[in-house]
Amino acid sequence: MGLEGRSSSGLAAVCCTMLFAGLQVYKTQLGSSRLLTLVAGYVSSWIFVFLLISINSLEQVLFGAGFQAKLPEVVLCFIIACGAAATVHRVSGTVCFLCSIVALYFINRISEEYQSQNNHAGLYAKKKK
């Protein structure tokens, strides 16, 4: 199973910071060609994913295990990740936005599958008793 609470939030924040630092260190190289500009946008979409994990894990620690990320958290993560990508190149910001939407779709899909498995297991356990 994955990390719990503070560990998950801290590790995701470290990964987000490392990706942002890498983008800033190699900003000139990433902005020099079309392919590397697209790569910078893709890497920035991982900033979105890690930032969303970090914020949501921190909220679960503060507000309880049932707390879920809502629209304001997602929009904040989009703005930060696309802003980080836009410091490299404007096209990177667009690619980051598109890749982040795809990543958000898959995160939502995985979350729904996980929640439905937990709900079915809980109902089965109650019926059996």
TrEMBL record:
Predominant location: membrane
Compartments it resides in: Membrane
Transmembrane segments: 6-23, 35-58, 78-107
A single Gene Ontology CC term: membrane
UniProt xrefs under Pfam families: Keratin_assoc (PF09775)
Lipid bilayer topology: Multi-pass membrane protein
UniProt keyword list: Membrane, Transmembrane, Transmembrane helix
Family: Belongs to the KRTCAP2 family.
Name of this protein: Protein KRTCAP2 homolog
Record organism: Hyalella azteca
